[in-house]
Structure formats: C-alpha cells, structure tokens
Amino acid sequence: MKVASPEPAPHLSARSTALWRELVPSRARSAGRLVLLQSALEALDRADQAREVLDREGLTTTTKRSGVVHLHPLVRVEKDSRAQFRAAWSRLGLEWDPNIDGRTR
Is the backbone of residue 100 left (phi > 0), alpha (psi -120 to 50) or beta? Predict the structure, then answer.
C-alpha cells in the first residue's frame, strides 16, 4: 500500500511547491525532514520576494529629511534568507552533485 505524500503548505510559491512535490516522495519523508524542507522553501520564497522589491526599488534608499543614502533594508533580508535556505538545503543533503545535475563547463 502506497502512502500519500503530504501536501505542501498553501503559502509556498509555485516554485517552492514544485520543489516540495519533487523532493518529498524520495528525499524528505520523516517529520523532521519535512519541517526542515518547509523552512528551507519558506526562506527561498522570502529571499525571492525581497529580490522582487529590490529589482523595483533599487539597492539603496534615501532619507527624506537629510538626503542620506542607505542600503535598502531588504538587501539584508535577501542575504539572510538565502543563507538560511542554503544551510537547510545542505542539512538535507541536497547540494549540487555533478553526477546528477551535470557539469558546469
């Protein structure tokens, strides 16, 4: 009897939902791995959302009062979220593998 894979959380993006559906049947079956995978995908979505805003608004902001230019606060959100994604992805053993993913050159 085949057990159905759990459904992805409804708040995940289409990209993250596709990754969930690809990975859960073969790589993330335990409760702990499912939680870690969901956290990784949420971090990926957060980084992508930050990137979309940065693409529209730019990497810097200027204060209205003094005119001082600052790094956009979402730069750090994107950076931290991508680091969280990479850490969880690595913990799940999902690093790039040239035997599976092909060569870069």
Answer: alpha
